[in-house]
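ping. complex inputs:
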Amino acid sequence: MMIVMKEGATEDQVAAVIERVQAAGAQAHISKGELVTVIGAIGDREHVANLGLEGAPGVDHLVPILKPYKLASEQYKRGERTVVEVDGRKIGGDHFATIAGPCTVESREVILDTARAVKDAGGQLLRGGAYKPRTSPYSFQGLGDAGLPLLAEAKAETGLPIVTELMDVRDLDAVVGVADVIQLGARNMQNYTLLTEVGRTGVPVLLKRGLSATLEELLMAAEYVLKEGNPSVLLCERGVRAFEPSYRFALDLMAVPVLRELTHLPVIVDPSHAAGKRSLVEPLSLAAAAAGADGIIVEVHPQPEEAICDGPQQLYADRFAEYAEQVERAAAVAGKVLSNV
Amino acid sequence: MMIVMKEGATEDQVAAVIERVQAAGAQAHISKGELVTVIGAIGDREHVANLGLEGAPGVDHLVPILKPYKLASEQYKRGERTVVEVDGRKIGGDHFATIAGPCTVESREVILDTARAVKDAGGQLLRGGAYKPRTSPYSFQGLGDAGLPLLAEAKAETGLPIVTELMDVRDLDAVVGVADVIQLGARNMQNYTLLTEVGRTGVPVLLKRGLSATLEELLMAAEYVLKEGNPSVLLCERGVRAFEPSYRFALDLMAVPVLRELTHLPVIVDPSHAAGKRSLVEPLSLAAAAAGADGIIVEVHPQPEEAICDGPQQLYADRFAEYAEQVERAAAVAGKVLSNV
Amino acid sequence: MMIVMKEGATEDQVAAVIERVQAAGAQAHISKGELVTVIGAIGDREHVANLGLEGAPGVDHLVPILKPYKLASEQYKRGERTVVEVDGRKIGGDHFATIAGPCTVESREVILDTARAVKDAGGQLLRGGAYKPRTSPYSFQGLGDAGLPLLAEAKAETGLPIVTELMDVRDLDAVVGVADVIQLGARNMQNYTLLTEVGRTGVPVLLKRGLSATLEELLMAAEYVLKEGNPSVLLCERGVRAFEPSYRFALDLMAVPVLRELTHLPVIVDPSHAAGKRSLVEPLSLAAAAAGADGIIVEVHPQPEEAICDGPQQLYADRFAEYAEQVERAAAVAGKVLSNV
Amino acid sequence: MMIVMKEGATEDQVAAVIERVQAAGAQAHISKGELVTVIGAIGDREHVANLGLEGAPGVDHLVPILKPYKLASEQYKRGERTVVEVDGRKIGGDHFATIAGPCTVESREVILDTARAVKDAGGQLLRGGAYKPRTSPYSFQGLGDAGLPLLAEAKAETGLPIVTELMDVRDLDAVVGVADVIQLGARNMQNYTLLTEVGRTGVPVLLKRGLSATLEELLMAAEYVLKEGNPSVLLCERGVRAFEPSYRFALDLMAVPVLRELTHLPVIVDPSHAAGKRSLVEPLSLAAAAAGADGIIVEVHPQPEEAICDGPQQLYADRFAEYAEQVERAAAVAGKVLSNV
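pong. complex structure:
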């Protein structure tokens, strides 16, 4: 932690800061410039983080030096990359995964038809929500518990592992019974109850970035899961809030190479929710794969016009194979291969 | 709902849209311009909202006409404003309330000392968190259950009603046992589990705006609570994410007059969390009051330098009376009076 | 400048950085933590700013310590505040000014009628644009040269000094002939040609913050003017781009107290362009004044419904006196008085 | 234009709006819903745009139906795409172009060395700034006039056409004497003086998107150029302002497919300025090409460590061929080929 003093801070103020740094068990290291004095507090991460010197007399601002996350940091695994393996499908490192399925498990027919299309196109995992977070209390909230056995059936038939969302800690056991990967949605990225409980299950987690979360906050949320002993976190960029009105969210593809430098965890991209519109999904998917993403999670449906939710952004199941092939070509440019079983 | 067709949409495409609108039980109303045809879908709110025409052939985009919230809308109470009354303190309409207290209930002494200062300064409610949402899993997470009796004691001594945060649905009963107002934090604005359960309690709710929530989304979150039969929702602006690095969050004071036009619910402003810095808290509080807010919620502490969290932004308890007086003057400019018991 | 090395940076990389710092004529000051080494480069502002070490081997990132502006900084005048005096009206320090007028000088009648209303209401300066920056090439672009004599006539009749916008460096002489304060619009905040030329005139400048300019960038733009020897810069907050769709721009009232800490220059607030809507203008004006702004610049028109541009946000001239009185009350809460002649 | 009335608007208010629409020479088309009345104003684009009904009694808000730009719209060329040809290099349609060069023309040696590297790597155009817009008045402002002959020399030797920036209308003739493509920077996207004058020259224009410009505003800026009779506008996405602190600007790759639907003009992506960091430039370039961009403009330098500006983001000239080949592969995924002479 560097403590930057104000121009014109007095000797006494500097001395008071030094004393406080030392009292916290850290070492104070003083750099006196012509205009400004900077005091480095060197010591244990925890002690230094909680010095509480912000706003103290003569202090202009603090500059943290150490990253606030540890288990999620690139340094923690000394350059080795986490590869999450789900029923033999690898995600991360050189392995790219396509996760696809309908927005919501709306019926047995829809989930089974889609699962077959994903399987035939060479997709790796099947997604589908039984519980759906909806902005409006008047919208369809998902089939709930009744949706879970349908996911299990789709897995039984196609062998595709299941990614499904958990919203309420009281549904944890039910979801764990079916999910191969538990999804935590953007609105729950900082739901510390869910992060902690999911961390305790050991089931791989697909953690969506909050609508206005910084990448550091996303990594801190992952840290909550990792800290409970669950090493299998897939980070998911799904678009952030921005000022542009011509699309729903701004897909932040810079997150892909930036996260690669900050963390060893795999990075998945969800182009569907940012786009909100089918015609944008393929170009964004190709861009994500070319940027070096470790996978995409995308919505597909046998008849999007009839879908209960998110119809306009879901791809057509009968053209999905063609799309998946294009994505594979783009991933190859970035040096990634699909991990088929 | 207006359906705006693309330039060059064919007659068949227009006919298909009309057919679909009518099939949904709504009336189609066609406006044919020189370049573009617009189809109005007139009918029941629910039917019209779920037409699923976005992305249909020839359709450029949809324009919703009706607001998606109903119980929260200004029209719902025909101009009458909601006044939430908590133990005799009125909030809303012409009544302004000052809600103050430490960031977290860190000890018996701190919460009692602060409560006395708030009481003496003429404050209306006491705030303090037993459960604390923290970005880092390594930060102090609040006293938890042990903090609740301390809040009860502070209330017993000063008579100030208590505002405290609920984070985990499993703590609902414990919190309801102490809280006069349940706070839902910014990170939980779209935690539909909490919104629904809190709606069922009937206890007044202070609902903080999410870090990147639009005002419409905030009102939709309030609608979740109102729909369960709980009419007492206090909306709280606490700063949104923005690009400016010189402060923590951008306090959106435009939300105050805009919400006044959109809803009958009271609007509270939290200047502390946006500022992150003591020196900004008073000017922002005065601005909020002058803009017509129905109250402020502000952090105050006997010894901010020793506070476990948010020290730099907490006001000094021994100068709180002076601050509260200034806020009262600003509220008076906007035509509001404090509601003392 | 602090140079933060990567975890695991080698001794050689550290040595190379130190060498480079010293070669630039600065002193290197090393702080070695358990995980990370930080090198302070102490010396002349210019040398240190251009070390070019970002991205060098082993370097994680740089942290500038000194602010990049000098003449605009609060420290430069050692706590004294700049008071700009225009024909006897003081702006800054304890003095608050109301600058008002129509969006554009659309006719002799409109500008004269408005000037009288502003004068009668106790306003300090008259605003009105002869040249108008318009998003669309098909919109009215202002009367241009023909508007300037009308402003001169309004000043002759009412004695109110004139604030008017300059957009094209080729119009500089014509504008200087009439303007008491030259306005540079938000789109031109970083038009370095204009900043430099206006700096050379010595005429006071009202510099609007760009739509997504940080406060530091605003101060750097002011520095361009100050550097040419023109000390009279009024900074103007007019709303920044944000994600909220229910208003045009997000008026950043936090800028008021933050700029007060960063600079000695006066801060003016423009509530009209952010709001885009008349009903929001008064609450935002009161908030700005209560937050400690040194003035407001607001649009007013005898018949807003007939205005050529920005009609919906212009106040009614015949109710302007009442509005101005309310603003004066709010300014008083912040300890400011109007400077009448 | 649709005029949405408030819930509870009176018959008289509706009648007044209709009268005003008709008085403007447009047709009024009324849709009466259960709660809300919507009035369509059908007629000439100009008349309808300037109805001035926003804020009128009983009016809730206006919804524009027609896009405000015409010449730039996709419909204007009925699906045909603009291909800009510069000395035989095609940009747009199926043709991808790599534009590369140093940030600034800092010396004869640097510009010539870089030009050779770009030529050898199969690049299409050479970029380099003689005039540089700089945030700080204390930074190097470019060689100015002295830089232009160096660009001419680089062209003479390599045959590469030149892209260079114009900042001051007074430099127009000098820049036109050398530039094959005139660049207008992000800070000047809404500098209407420059847009108009450059429109009159007929020289192709590379128009960078402003830091917080919407895509509609970008197209309106292009419209200023097109309206003067200059059909050769290259739109350039270069990153927008966002809240994430780990990179400089948020490269908006969604702009690529969205602009493809809105306009016939080619879209170029500048990954260097958004990234601010070399290691991010290649992944972002691949993503841009895979998303369907018509070209990239990228910074490259023989010795980035010694560069006067933007060193950390400039690619190494001696590794540029390898990079260019990767970009070509990604462009191929999107169906584009390089246009070599």
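The mean pLDDT of chain B is 93.
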